[in-house]
């Protein structure tokens, strides 16, 4: 049974233990049996409105044993994150409970002064003026912090807009990307794991693939989904695929149930997929053009993104013109590459993007080589058998495919 395979259980609340004010069938019994078996329990919720103490009292009122220090709310996690970051003042878009958690962490909640950060949560009484004030403060330099980005949460009769709906409004108004603390981001999971004794077998139990399962997998732990049917994603490598699926918490004690072993890949979970281009440019001596990029300090083939309304040939020509001053003519396609291990890039903002890159063989048709673009530290031609040691890992294969003289298969 699943209950015997783990020492500690991280449990979502809404949709797993209760919905609204109603305890879900079998939840109290299952949690009692876990405690009797000596299992450690942590309740993880993306509800930013109540304090940890209030949630512990709510659980007790439903007949579920819970201490405040066993509850990890995204509001408390945000307060802890900001305290450790040294933030001393915040403007809050959210509930009294969120404000209380921040103040208990020693962070001043201000309404008139210019704060160091804007914390965006959710509350039934939020209005346009809250979003307006938050947006203006972020434009003036305050850090943008979201307690989570959940779009909706379960309530009796369906779903209700959640924190992510408010965050999206502020993000649309500012054009800024928030720091996210709650599930599926790592800070909340790191706080939960840090509260447990070391060397424990830990599992996450939740009802939302996009926050509970994805977050657990990003933290390197397996995830059990509470659902009538498992979700269906296009690929087996999707981080949102649960390792087991149960209908109620009592199924944790059903004999014979197994769980998939989660092994975290080398690449982070990409938030989006984008089209990219790369160029193999050879000079008259058969040397290949490489550039050293400012963002990572490593050598590689010239690369870039395809902009809206642009063909891949136009994109590669534009990138070379802008970055190194060369005019090129595209000769042929080398290959299309999309392997996540080499094609997922994390930007300084924290956004992870998986590129589907068309690599094109090009010849020089004009211009003069330069390396004065802000994104390029250096540019030079190298013999294919004397490439720099700090070359990006995937580029030797791309160059080999180009020199092989045939268009590569569309499989990488």
List keywords for this structure.
412 residues, alpha/beta, Rossmann fold, Nucleoside Triphosphate Pyrophosphohydrolase, 3 domains, six-stranded parallel beta sheet, five-stranded parallel beta sheet, 11 helices, 23 strands, 27% helix, globular, disordered C terminus
Provide the low-confidence segments as ranges.
Answer: 407-412
CATH superfamily label of the largest domain? Nucleoside Triphosphate Pyrophosphohydrolase
Could you say which structural class the secondary elements and strand pairing correspond to? alpha/beta
Tally of structural domains: 3
Distance between the termini: 39 Å
Please give the largest β-sheet: 6 strands, parallel
CATH architecture of the largest domain: Alpha-Beta Complex
Strand-residue proportion: 25-35%
CA-based gyration radius? 25 Å
What share of the residues lie within helices?
A: 25-40%
Across the major sheet, the strand order is 5-4-1-13-14-15
Stated plainly, the CATH topology of the largest domain is called: Nucleoside Triphosphate Pyrophosphohydrolase
Number of strands: 23
Describe it for me?
- The chain is of the alpha/beta class and 412 residues long.
- It has three domains: 2-46 and 184-253, Rossmann fold, CATH 3.40.50.1000; 84-180, HAD superfamily/HAD-like (Rossmann fold, 3-Layer(aba) Sandwich); 272-403, Nucleoside Triphosphate Pyrophosphohydrolase (Alpha-Beta Complex).
- The protein contains eleven helices and 23 strands.
- It has a six-stranded parallel sheet, sandwiched between helices.
- Helix 8 links the parallel strand 13 (202-206) and strand 14.
- Helix 3 runs parallel beside helix 4 and helix 5 packs across helix 6 (163-174).
- The longest helix is centred in the C-terminal third of the chain and has 13 residues, at 312-324.
- The radius of gyration is 25 Å and the shape is globular.
- The two termini are 39 Å apart.
- Residues 407-412 have low confidence and may be disordered.
